[in-house]
Automatic annotation (TrEMBL):
Name recorded for this polypeptide: Dihydrofolate reductase
Domain DHFR: 1-161
The UniProt record lists the keyword NADP: yes
Pathway(s) annotated for this protein in UniProt: Cofactor biosynthesis; tetrahydrofolate biosynthesis; 5,6,7,8-tetrahydrofolate from 7,8-dihydrofolate: step 1/1
UniProt keyword annotations, A-Z: NADP, One-carbon metabolism, Oxidoreductase
A Pfam family hit: DHFR_1
Reactions mediated catalytically: (6S)-5,6,7,8-tetrahydrofolate + NADP(+) = 7,8-dihydrofolate + NADPH + H(+)
Length: 162
C-alpha cells in the first residue's frame, strides 16, 4: 500500500529551500509515530535537505535519476516501477514523503493520503501538486492542539481512494 504523507499551508505550500517553512513539533511527532518501523520514500533533494541522513527505525528509499548516487544507510532507486514493486513485496505501508515531483509521480498509485493542513500562510517555493479530490474521500479529521510550541491551528486528515 502506498500512502502520501505531507503537511501544507492553506495555499498548498509544502516547502522553502528544501526545508519546512514552519515549526510544528506536533506534526513532526505525528510523522514519526506514523512512519516508525515502515518505509519512507523521498526524492534526492528532500533527502539532502534533511542533512543526507536516514531517519532512525525506518527504511529510507531515496529516488533519483542519478545512477551513481549513493548514501550510507539508504536504498537508492531510480524509477516509479522499482518503488511500486518494492511496495507490493513489502506487505507494509510505504510512505511517500516528498518533494513535489515525487508526490506528482506517485499520487496516481496511492491508496491513502495523510495530510496535515496548517491554517496559516507561509512564504516558500515548493507547492503540493494538484490533486483530483473527486477520487478521494475524507474518512478522518482530527484537530491538532495549539500551544506554546505548536502555534498554528492545524488538523490531521486521512483520505481513502474512492
Amino acid at each position: 500500500m502506498l500512502v502520501a504523507l505531507w503537511a501544507q499551508d492553506k495555499n498548498g505550500l509544502i516547502g522553502k529551500d528544501n526545508q519546512l517553512p514552519w515549526s510544528l513539533p506536533a506534526d513532526l511527532k505525528f510523522f514519526k509515530e506514523t512512519t516508525i518501523g515502515n518505509t519512507i520514500v523521498m526524492g534526492r533533494k528532500t533527502f539532502e535537505g534533511m542533512g543526507k541522513r536516514a531517519l532512525p527505525s525506518r527504511q529510507t528509499i531515496v529516488l533519483t535519476r542519478d545512477k551513481n548516487y549513493q548514501s550510507e544507510g539508504v536504498l537508492v532507486m531510480h524509477t516509479v516501477e522499482e518503488i511500486l514493486d518494492y511496495a507490493k513485496q513489502s506487505g507494509h505501508p510505504v510512505y511517500i514523503i516528498g518533494g513535489a515531483l515525487i508526490f506528482k509521480d506517485y499520487l496516481p498509485y496511492c491508496d491513502q493520503l495523510l495530510r496535515t493542513m496548517i491554517d496559516e500562510e507561509f512564504d516558500g517555493d515548493i507547492y503540493m501538486p494538484e490533486i483530483d479530490w473527486s477520487q478521494w474521500e475524507l474518512v478522518q479529521s482530527t484537530e491538532g492542539v495549539v500551544d506554546e510550541k505548536n502555534k498554528y491551528a492545524h488538523r490531521y486528515e486521512t483520505f481513502e481512494r474512492k
